[in-house]
Amino acid sequence: MDGEPFQLISGAIHYFRIVPEYWEDRLLKLKACGFNCVEIYIPWNLHEPREGEFNFSGIANVEKFIKIADRLGLYLIARPSPYICSEWEFGGLPSWLLADRNMRVRSFYLPYLKKVDNYYDVLLPKLKPLLQTSGGPIIAMQIENEYGSYGNDKKYLNYIKDAMIQRGMDVLLFTSDGPTDMMLMGGTVDDVLATVNFGSRPKESFKKLQEHFPNTPNIVMEYWNGWFDHWGEAHHTRDPQEAADTFEKMLKNGDSVNFYMFHGGTNFGFYNGANYDEKYEPTITSYDYDCPISETGDITPKFHLVRNAIAKHFDIGELVLPKPIPKRKYGEVAMTNSLRLFDVLEQISEPVKSTHPETMEKVGQDYGFILYRTFLKGPLGEAPLTIQEVRDRALVFVNTEFKGVIDRWDQKSVMINVPKEGIQLDILVENMGRINYGPYMYDPKGITEGVRFERQFIFDWTIYKLPLDNLEKLEFTTEVENVKDQPSFYRGNFQVDEIGDTFVELPSWTKGVVFVNGFNLGRYWEIGPQKTLYVPGPLLKEGNNEIVVFELHGIKEAKINLIDTHHLG
Predict the structure, then answer these.
(1) Phi, psi dihedral angles at 490 (to 5 degrees)
(2) Domains of the chain
(3) Which of 80, 170, 356, 357 is the one with CA 20 to 30 A from 59?
(4) What positions does the domain Glycoside hydrolase 35 catalytic occupy (predicted)?
């Protein structure tokens, strides 16, 4: 840096997982811990939600976030690679790419690269004034993310590198990959700094980096000091002392470190991703990551141990933290109104007629739910109904009566009966998050091939798109009604005198989505590990507040609790 050796002590904070009102709070805590840099991903799907339509406002105002970091005296590493992984929906790639069944991502495929170019034509000029070479805080940029874990297309990597350079990105460019021969050989490119990602054994990992790139700086671009969670598994934690000790070994050696994550935040809305190892594994709403700053911005024991490690090697002064954000307990909220989904379909969705049960992407939908309806003439008798292939979880209804679940795990069919008078068949499919890592990233949602009754494919469908991105059309005029196995919207109101962070607890509910004052907090599911949803204070207002819950299966009691404690496992 300016001709002098510089040891990077950086931490990942994702602006898109934090309400903008808290950006400065989280960055101040990063600096207070002794860090000199913040690292961000930039998710393409957030900034170009529809092809050719760009969003850089609110939680997507990346320029504002970078300027706050600059004002606080932090350097910044930007990772605007088209693909980010990050346990984020489709790894940051926009879902509309999949409307083209021939699409090939992350490779030298011109239809894909043209769309990347269109995105970079808008994004990169916004970053140009914020580069260090322009007087800004951005000291480095990534061209692709862990590409060696996916492919070896050097022509593609060079195209992305050149796309950045041609648009004036004249700061240090880098790649980041796992510390193996295959990953480093596949993911690196000439004249671009290679870095490695790992959670332990730094000596061995850096040795592998030096084997491929002798005398290169030792930089871990992702030091995994915690981990993320999938639905249905235990909450991941890592011993704070062990994580801090591993970090200090690198500090002593003069290695540069970027904590992934320093503060994780929340997968608000439908933006969680998913993994696929031996099975499909969707990520939970919380992105706490068990890192130095919790999902809710709290200082953790890991924070203090990491700061102590830094203080042994650098003068970082006394610990000065921003004022704590209060947590409030607003108590029990009675849900006073409800609406069955089947009663309001026409209010919140315009039907699309189709011969085939098309995917979400094919009908122009990104996230949420999608309902397929048809009429089967009888008599056909009883036989299994099979979806070929569902992405990801479907509820099957005959004449609006629930018959069972078909999912991409174990439940592949449901028995139904088609009498002489025929039946109305409804299939409600939930997109639980597109795969964000590995070889199965081509993950269109909804019904991807077809529906069979016994061996016969069913045609002639009416499709209702249910992104649930605007619930204002719902007219809650009916008293609350608890109908088992009927997907329904429930509404309640609560009063706020003093605004603070709070948490939605749903002990009597099964699976669904929660909205507070129209903001989609994310998914809940009784299988855990997450038991509460985080409600940042800025989403609330003094006086009356509204909470709407879309429940898929039914409830025991029509109430939720707003408590002052987060439960993750």
Answers:
(1) -120, 140
(2) 9-311 (3.20.20.80), 331-337+471-563 (2.60.120.260), 356-459 (2.60.120.260)
(3) 170
(4) 1-311
